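Researcher: Structure for this, please.
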Amino acid sequence: MSIEAINEQLLRAIGVGVALLDLSDLKFRFFNDTFKEWFSEIELGQQLGDVFPDIDAAGVRRALDEEGQFTGEASFRVRRRTMTIAMTVNPALDGKERVAVLVCQNISRIKELESMIDSYSMMVERNTREIKREKEQVEKLLLNMMPRSVYEEYKTFGVVTPRTYDHVAVLCLDFADFSGTVARQDPGVIVSELNDIYTAFDRIGDQFGCERIKTVGDLYITVAGMPDPSERSVQSISDAAVRFIRYLEQRNRSHPIDWNCRIGLASGSVIGSVVGVQKYIYDVFGPAVADAMRLREHAGLMEIVASEDFAARFGDDHPTVSAGEGRTADGKSVNLVRLLADTDAVGR
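Model: Predicted structure, token format:
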């Protein structure tokens, strides 16, 4: 770069700090007003390191010798603000003397913007993680309220189309003297007990392909054969019912509170849909649900009751004994049987 070119650059250097340095010792020979404004105490003859203590003078010379140019950044305080400049040092000739042209551009605003972008990116990333975590919690909650296939439909379309499912087996369970137990126990104890029991029921139901639909206090309803049809829905719900009884019997032997349930089983068609708008819930209703609830009333403590027609469908999987005559939800008279839970047939 010639001295004329340097002068032309100096004239154009409005807002840009420009200085000339002796290439041999990197002492300042000239600086423009902008440079003086930034470094008010600078004097001619000072060395580059006096103004930029963090700069490696040997590194500057080496870069000029090997690459023909040095570039770097430096930050310093100007009054109460931190200022960052991008500096470029190029060798030049002033007559026969070798000089270096130092050009400094204020990039503080760029650095501030980069910092803002980094902060914004971190905030977006943090918010994304929180949204993902909340989404997972909502998904987990909804999956506790409805079958996955129903949830997927609700997530995709925002609604769940009511459907009729045929050949669904329904289990309806409640506990004897539940109101008395609630009155005698601390509410926290009751909730903890029900949580343990329903969690166990859910686990047992999963083993046999059953889908818990809802719990209302001591009422627990689970189904088999929906939303995916199953030819073994009756066997599955019967196996689960027997396992429920066995679980409670075993639990009662080691816990202070006895839980004695009654179970009604039935099969038939049900309608499944999400009901409600703000406090919606996936629910099933129909003849099979009503019959299961009615037959439950014919069951004694820790007994499972179903119709003879229902028992005929699981064949020899579970031994039964006659339980007399009963009526279904529509008033139809049916012969009832009681499933015996003390058998090794379950889980074969």
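Researcher: Any notable elements?
Model: The chain is about 40% helix and 30% strand. The CA atoms of residues 211 and 297 lie 22 Å apart.
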